[in-house]
Amino acid sequence: MIFCQPRSPVGASLLAMVVNDDAGHLSPRAALRFFASRLAPTVFCVLLGIPGLAQAFDLQQLSDQLARPDVIHGNFVQEKHLRALPQPLTSKGTFVLAKNHGLLWLLKTPLQQDYRITTKGIARRDASGWQMLPGKSAGAEQNRLFLAVLQGDSSGLQRDFELSLSGDAQNWKLTLVPRSMLLKQVFNQINITGGELVHSIELLETQGDSTLLRMQDSTPAQPLSTAEQHDFAE
């Protein structure tokens, strides 16, 4: 698979991160589920410029709106709802989304772990620095989808999802329904809501599990710090 090159949009999020260090050794179906829980930030920004779709508030306008900030800082709360558990698995942390750089996903609880997602793949920080996670075909495909959402690669998203946008610039909802048989095995749909920035991403899986990622206190006011620039440069 070929990774997308960075584009201007930044306003959205992640398709949700669950700490699982065995992603590189999973079967294709299991790898898709692993990256499904990791990438409910992918999203992050759903920046889709799709010609020929006439709406009061259309996908091109959404793309333009979310593309404005160069850097977004914020907090996240992720809830993983499993059919076998009465309460969701909750994780919290902070994120930095930077145009032309990628995403820093900094997990604080229930344990501390830093991730970096760029066109090169997913890296995890350890005592010696950033280490790239091994990628298999299914995991690489899911990473490509994440970056397509993050960077507003409409061609990549249209190939894999049916897209439906409702609402207005201050209160919108984007629904992604899988086209491919491989993605249909994992997802029923992905729901993304927001206003000026993305507020939430919800992944609904075929087996009844779901992931809800809420982006909180997001602000485009701060530039990258020296440490953040270094993290993206390594």
Automatic annotation (TrEMBL):
<comment type="subunit">
    <text>Monomer.</text>
</comment>
<dbReference type="Pfam" id="PF19574">
    <property type="entry name" value="LolA_3"/>
</dbReference>
<keyword id="KW-0813">Transport</keyword>
<protein>
    <recommendedName>
        <fullName>Outer membrane lipoprotein carrier protein LolA</fullName>
    </recommendedName>
</protein>
<keyword id="KW-0653">Protein transport</keyword>
<keyword id="KW-0732">Signal</keyword>
<dbReference type="InterPro" id="IPR029046">
    <property type="entry name" value="LolA/LolB/LppX"/>
</dbReference>
<dbReference type="GO" id="GO:0015031">
    <property type="term" value="P:protein transport"/>
</dbReference>
<dbReference type="InterPro" id="IPR004564">
    <property type="entry name" value="OM_lipoprot_carrier_LolA-like"/>
</dbReference>
